[in-house]
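Job type: complex structure
Entries:
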Amino acid sequence: MFEELIKKPAAWLTGEGKNSEIVLSSRVRLARNISSIPFPSVAIPEEREKIISFVNKAVQKSSFLNGGKVHNSSEIPKLDKDFLVERHLVSPEFMRGSNNKALYIGEEEKISLMINEEDHVRIQALNSGLEIKSTFELADKVDTELSNTLEFNFDPDFGYLTSCPTNAGTGMRASVLIHLPGLVLTKEIENVISQVTKLGLTVRGFYGEGSDVLGNLFQISNQTTLGKSEEDLIESLEKVTNQIIEYENNSRKTLYSEAKEQIEDKIWRAFGILRSARVITSTEVTNLLSALRLGLGMGTIKEIPLGLINQILLISFPAHLQKYLNKEMEPNERDILRAELIREKLKSSI
Amino acid sequence: MLCDDCKNNNATIQVTQIINNDKMTLNLCQKCAEKRGFRSPFEGVPFPLAEFLSSMITASAKTGDKPHTKTVIETRCPGCGMSFTEFAQKGRLGCGGCYKAFRPQLKDLLRKIHGSDSHRGKIPNLPGKEMTHLREERKLQEELKKAIEEENFEMAARIRDKIKGLQTEK
């Protein structure tokens, strides 16, 4: 399944959009529930099927959405599920336990709908780079399109009603995935995180909640969803993100002026390992690519384009690697073939 | 390093959580990590939201301390049959009707989570008198904001009165 997707970069890794060397992607999720039907965790299978068919109808009726396709998650094999998680089209939670759930993927993968995750519908809009506002506008348009057919649960005081009260109100979670090696190396990151959390935003490591940070990638999102308008929440996320980009650039300047050789050494060693390794895990690749991405940003390595860094990152993820090589493999075999594939990709550069 | 939970096996997993400003680090062995519901970083480590919420809810029920609190907690939602105690355990509500059934408790909880209990965002284009009112009020509030920005205080006062009128009608 999804063979047509593997040939293309994932929407969050096209390298397009503003500041895409530092901000990998912008994402907006809206939680919505259809009136008069219990939330997914309580609904019986027949009701969950009803939700899928309602959303499917709403998609068909919308000329904006009917180019995409609804897939029943019971039809999606395990490998393809992991593949979709790696492409950031669905949450890992969505793919756990697959009864009466469905997924819609729009053209170019910029829009997706998770049906019967924690809420009846989770609308997601995704763009590469710092594009929070246009990403929100896209999600908002999808919501309006769906509302033409579906009646969403709404309360004049509490706004959109969601299964978990932490999402009530706007139902909106807007986030950016941001690469901050400078702040990590200068140990300023803790400081920045504590400042950001004071401003009503949450900072998480790459790969979701509470996880240890991978590849110096952080996810910043709004913590609250009620009491402020979508526009205000978006504006505050955008402002803070711009501020963090400035801090990151400043710490890179500090690193360059105070420890140029050490930083360049780190970058070139990362390149050396990627170009010569015989066995390599996806985690190691993610961490080494962080150094290459930094090298590209600081002008140390000019020969490797951002597109290639993004491509290697994506095809190194376990499910992507297997889909890319069209072969299901055990972890040990994957690590060997991953190393081989990366050597091949980097052969032509420098 | 030994596992923080069982103090027996070697800790192989470090879990760091930042909630508001408080950072908490746990060193766990594979078994204890799984017991707590943490999986490998690649599967995404779920944040024990239900636990966190239920501790918040229980705390708020305790601080309520009024004699009627207990009976209020046992209210069941007529839509899905969920009780507030069940919600406190699960951290998830059963249906939209729960927001009506547990209104006072949820108002309190929403204020704790979001610092607010009133929606300021998008209003869907739904029918009904209440929704029309809401849209009208929102429009007036925007006009009020604009009038104040333009220092047109006479206009602002007129709009404010209109909003008051709408609110008393409700």
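Summary: Chain A touches chain B through 61 residues (CB under 8 Å). Chain A has two domains: 10-252, 260-346.
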